[in-house]
Hints:
The structure is a homotetramer. By secondary structure, chain A is of the alpha/beta class. Chain A folds into two domains: 6-233 and 342-397, 3-Layer(aba) Sandwich (Rossmann fold), CATH 3.40.50; 238-338, Dihydrodipicolinate Reductase, domain 2. Chain A is built from 14 helices and 13 strands. The mean pLDDT of chain A is 92.
Amino acid sequence: MAPRRVGLWLIGACGGVASTTALGLSALARGQTPPTGLVTALPQFAGHDFDAPDAFVVGGHDIRKGNFLTAARELHERSNVFDERTLAACAGDLETWSANLRPGVVYRPDAAVTALADRPDMRRAGSAREAIDTIQADLRAFKAAHKLDQLVVVNAASTEPPFEPTDEQKSLERLLPALERGAPASLPTSGVYAFAALDAGFPYVNMTPSRGATLPALEELARKRGVPHAGQDLKTGETLLKSVLAPMFARRNLRVLSWVGHNILGNRDGLVLNDPDNKSSKVTSKDRLLAELLGYKPQSHVSIEYIESLDDWKTAWDHVHFEGFLGTKMMLQFTWQGCDSLLAAPLVIDLVRLTALAQRRGESGPMPHLACFFKSPIGVSDHDFGKQFALLEAYLANPDRKAGSA
Amino acid sequence: MAPRRVGLWLIGACGGVASTTALGLSALARGQTPPTGLVTALPQFAGHDFDAPDAFVVGGHDIRKGNFLTAARELHERSNVFDERTLAACAGDLETWSANLRPGVVYRPDAAVTALADRPDMRRAGSAREAIDTIQADLRAFKAAHKLDQLVVVNAASTEPPFEPTDEQKSLERLLPALERGAPASLPTSGVYAFAALDAGFPYVNMTPSRGATLPALEELARKRGVPHAGQDLKTGETLLKSVLAPMFARRNLRVLSWVGHNILGNRDGLVLNDPDNKSSKVTSKDRLLAELLGYKPQSHVSIEYIESLDDWKTAWDHVHFEGFLGTKMMLQFTWQGCDSLLAAPLVIDLVRLTALAQRRGESGPMPHLACFFKSPIGVSDHDFGKQFALLEAYLANPDRKAGSA
Amino acid sequence: MAPRRVGLWLIGACGGVASTTALGLSALARGQTPPTGLVTALPQFAGHDFDAPDAFVVGGHDIRKGNFLTAARELHERSNVFDERTLAACAGDLETWSANLRPGVVYRPDAAVTALADRPDMRRAGSAREAIDTIQADLRAFKAAHKLDQLVVVNAASTEPPFEPTDEQKSLERLLPALERGAPASLPTSGVYAFAALDAGFPYVNMTPSRGATLPALEELARKRGVPHAGQDLKTGETLLKSVLAPMFARRNLRVLSWVGHNILGNRDGLVLNDPDNKSSKVTSKDRLLAELLGYKPQSHVSIEYIESLDDWKTAWDHVHFEGFLGTKMMLQFTWQGCDSLLAAPLVIDLVRLTALAQRRGESGPMPHLACFFKSPIGVSDHDFGKQFALLEAYLANPDRKAGSA
Amino acid sequence: MAPRRVGLWLIGACGGVASTTALGLSALARGQTPPTGLVTALPQFAGHDFDAPDAFVVGGHDIRKGNFLTAARELHERSNVFDERTLAACAGDLETWSANLRPGVVYRPDAAVTALADRPDMRRAGSAREAIDTIQADLRAFKAAHKLDQLVVVNAASTEPPFEPTDEQKSLERLLPALERGAPASLPTSGVYAFAALDAGFPYVNMTPSRGATLPALEELARKRGVPHAGQDLKTGETLLKSVLAPMFARRNLRVLSWVGHNILGNRDGLVLNDPDNKSSKVTSKDRLLAELLGYKPQSHVSIEYIESLDDWKTAWDHVHFEGFLGTKMMLQFTWQGCDSLLAAPLVIDLVRLTALAQRRGESGPMPHLACFFKSPIGVSDHDFGKQFALLEAYLANPDRKAGSA
């Protein structure tokens, strides 16, 4: 039997996360790096039927010029990550995969996206329907060309501004005719890509705070087509820390008075977030979980600022003011200095592996056992990282039962 | 039926933790303060048969001059904690309880203890046996005088230097004759107090890194007498954080390269720890759990320094250097500014309540469900705070079953 | 000869800075506290003819209810500063001085001021001229009642929103007729008070970022009346650190790439600054000096957020990203935890002493030798704290020569 | 007239500082890098007769295997500094200069040095005199081979353990006969090299806390031979910050209660410092200046720990506890993350340029105008960085007058 071949399609393929994912898959396949940072490589998860690094074929969309290799090189030079040796060893794979890149499909872009888009052959769609058709054609061509057994679509594009779902976005019954008649606001960009993937039967994973497949109509679509999907907004830094520290305060009955988090970063994600509209989406996602973890809402403040010199190194300072016994005020402060793309890329690989596995197991809809990866996990309201991780452990320990379905 | 009366006997009664515990019990009983910082006051534990604050009568031993009120006042003035209002409201209770104080019993004291001891009427015992008899007489007199239903003995004294257990300390069979013949090293000071309590049937809780009841012979004694006990070394600051942060790194497969923790504090605990012998006991206790939480031993360094100006405010700086994907080194740093006595005192109340409850349930020996309170929990090797807390939840949810006994 | 009596008139008398200043003067006069934090008490400045603490009589305006004693008590309780002993020893003085308080004069108040004003007898002026007359009457009555030799007026009120000076505010020649005809925007609130003081011959010191006497027309007035004045915006925390750290980077030719400063605080100052208009005034003042100290403008970001639980404890986190040799990026981070009123109050006393001295020396106009106290010193463009301090040393070492006039 | 050629002889040539200095000189000469980090490249010092980067010829001694290129490459790979492009552009120069390397001369080595020494052809001297002769022969051969106009010797070797000077080391009159008769402890290793340089007329600069030319007999020798020298212990991180922050506290009359500094680093310097003897030399040097800057001695604590994963990235956490007005305790904390070799190397170039200039000006003995570079500047007791820098400015502004000689 021929070995399994799994496609990974990256929306935002020339970004830091996507290009690091491609570089990482190649480096893992070539034995250039240990699997540090991969949850699926933990000893306790050995023996599961995860796809090996060399099973993957990578492609993607982007609205910017460049390819996997130039993007990885740029990240190397600006952010001082990876080394020349790894880049040299993997350059061939990255070039090969770059041939699978397709120009992005733009439909009603927001200002931040417009500012970034510089690929002359990107395709402007007149309607959401047209955009979906174009994307699906790309996905199907990729699958056919590489004789892929499975194909997972991953949203690693820039964050889009938040919005309130329209009636059409709230039910598939209303969405479908709206798409057919070319109703202008029927879907945002992230929704167009999610629709294209799910409708064509390809699992969809959303690393960003954009809506993606969380729109009710698209959740319906996923169930109808029997496709698993996951999201939203990877939990890689400050929020990950909140999800382990806030339960500690709660369990010790220490009252959090205020929690202030300031994030600075200098990558393209930061540039897009510098637009107030796009930023508010991210800030909301980061801020919400505190009340859920503590059982009350302390004063909180979250900021994200674009500081160019930091490149991909996101630096966060958090100041937690809490009250202990007899009204005594105390403080915890932390600073987190992490490289965003390097924190996110192994989790992309994890999520693709886990999603492909779920599809093979015949699962569809949101995957609650993946809650530990996300700031706003679909369908899971508990934000305690320890408890979320236990969901994953339980899922993998019981191959025939979905987490939460007991 | 008369309301239950529970005695709390504090070894090291004039220290910051003990006097804050007394002040706190009074303040809670008088409605002067909310139960912030008490685990037993968490909403999810409501409905359990925990003793109310006004059920307690407090007494204790100390080798230093002073009483509950002077010690609480000193802490207020030096460390800028509590307020005048609380002190005034509780002064009467503290004075009443101070009448229960007895001069400490000294047997083969180490240098740090000798330097502290200034109470002229403290009693020097010629043998461990004599010390035990004196202590037991004090405990029994306290119980009788106040018609107590239960009496819990708590070690809140200064840390003693570490040592390797002798053969006599390893079995009750050998210890008892050694005590009778007055063998010089039969028990350290913390062991003498623990023996006295357990032998007389009083539960014993050890807040310190001193050996206390962890000596095998004393564990045997506890089981033989059917008495529950708990310890050792309260987890209130840096180590508490380690026990939630290290599992986070482990679960994300991020490799901790080094973990450096520097602690500075200026209370009497800090002064005793300034003695290199006593310090090593504390440092070992703080350092050990990292390897157990991560599954490997990163380079680590822990220091504790006495900095007088900080008084009871323990300040810790931790620098965690870790490796992510593709060999990328990243950093987490935190500073913790907590007031030791205020962090520990509510946990003393929790432990006394939980221990009294266990005794009423007929339990004896170490209590694994209390692991979440300690740096070195007796009989529990998992240091993950979330999992330890789940043991407590399971214990309280199943009144007829002990944690870990399933 | 009767001892000198000097009046200190505080605009914003019920604020934290003003009430701490009053408490501090009383505590110094009564020997309750050492002069820690007072520049004029440094050993190298001994022997100068500074007014002794007991030479001062304190009064002031406010638009809020309360007095020196209630304001000091509130600060004590909310921010956990001072002790009961000091408050008790000084309560009599504070009550005596509180009798000198007069209701504030409001003229075209901004939204933040309106929200604060709760004193029912405050006086609403129909024109700047009317406001000035009312204020001058208060000042003159205070001086007469206490037979004061000198009277210094200090602006310690909340920050007003920034604005561009009008033509009338740019020359005395235009301002005076505008005042007479009741032109509506002739002066902002801070300008009204400054005009009242200077015009009546009383030196004026501006602790805030509000315009105060920095309007060109008022600078003219000060010279014409022969009155010294000083400002603007006390340098007490993050900016003080910038003014010593930035010169260090400059002298070592280390290139600052970005300097991010996040400030959080919970006092009334913070509440007023939470209004975006008022905040921008403060942020601009804090941000400007970096370019002047470094000789180029790095990317910088300054935020101030109101976090209620911090009360008067301003906490700042600064992240300085700099480039060293061979393009190597390095980092300095600091956190500053200072109590604003306690940092500012001794400097108010210093400035009043130094201003009274200057007036006795016959000086008028801005005092460049006071640059080391301010974020935006009038007439001094060098922000290097060391060099600014040298101006003060030179001034005091040469009693007959003004700093900068060599 | 032929352009001037200046030799730079590095003791400890294969260390991080020395190899970075060589790489930096080449990169500057080839226009590969801007002169960031060089004090002598500041705009205000333009126009001085400093030697251009391409005037230098580099050589040195080491007891370890390796050369300039291998050492620079190792630093690149371990500490993630420089880039491949710079290394490639400068590899030729580094190889050429590596031909000038000579095996180190070992005389009575301490344990840490012995552990490092792995160069098989290093020369063990039987007496200090013999060591001196060998070193001088190397220096003279280097000068002759390259027709050097000047030659500056720089100590960039590992720190040696501290010791109290012997009588022989205190006067040249006693030292010279002791050398002749081969008295065993006549000079430590750093003294042997310093003697060799000064005695042969070559200026000597000591970047380390080792004694070097600070022994009274060697200071005498320098004056007698008319040779300038400088030292000791470069001020590059935590101490530099102390020398700007402590004067700030002093000038504001804020009382420093305690100053705790914890340093962690993982380079060879750190490894040698892990030896308690060698460490105490460094710690003393770092700790002393606080009392001199403040005018009183606060409690202070300095630690240096070897943490392998940090490589050349020295990370320091400082906690400054200070008292403000009315007894209020406040805090400043900072963390410094700097790459030691990259901070030191440009200062080596500065010092060589300034020393060569001084020699051309006919100066001899210690150079007080270089105080701003050192933790323990010879002959200057003022540790205020701003004032020290003013000495350098004054010196360069007055070409005919030495600093401090007015």
